[in-house]
Amino acid sequence: MVSKRMAMKTDRKDFMSYALRAMEKGDPTSMMSNEEIMTTFEVLMAAGSETTATLLSGVTYQLLENPNVLRKLVAEIRSSFAHSHEITMVSVNNLKYQLAVLEEALRIMPPVATTLRRLVPSGQGEVVGGHFVPGGMRVGVPAWTASRSPLNFRDPESFIPERWLGDVRYAEDRREASQPFSMGPRGCLGRSLAYAEMRIVLARVLFEFDLKLMKSSKSWLENLKNFGLWQKDPLMVRLRPVIRD
Which positions are annotated as binding heme (predicted)? Predict the structure, then answer.
């Protein structure tokens, strides 16, 4: 995909266009080698595109399987905007229920469900979770396991955005256990961009269309496979444009 994009002639600006422009100018301060471009854009595609697409697929499925949640979210979005161009990176911050929906989607289907490993510093080792771990060992917590554990969440298999909005039934939830972007100084540096993308895309889709899950995708969630990233079947959804006066 990287090689194909490098060979493509287009006026559309994307991340690659800036790398190619620096190569054309021969600017040694910003020019990347072919190897650097391949490595960098492999990460950008996997971490900066596929993960957001996975989350948007997952939240769409959960919304269509939980019509009460969908109705609440659609009502919030369509009562907040009169035109789609009003949906911006700033204005979506006012959609409190939408943020809870996305937090719940990230909990129940983290795009990176496996362990994001850390290296225990060499030397004396460290105590992690009450257990001594020798230096040089790799440690980590699988996001799926932590966010689906009944030790951390009540009704862990249920899609309930209200748990993020102070619902007293879920007051004992350990919400900090859901860390889909990892945490600390080595956490995902694209977190803010991902939230902006997810909020804008979801808001615009639900503002413009009514959605219905097709029968062929009823078992979409059960057919998922994970190999670091999720392998997904097509999510078949019927979209009907909202007719406004």
Answer: 188
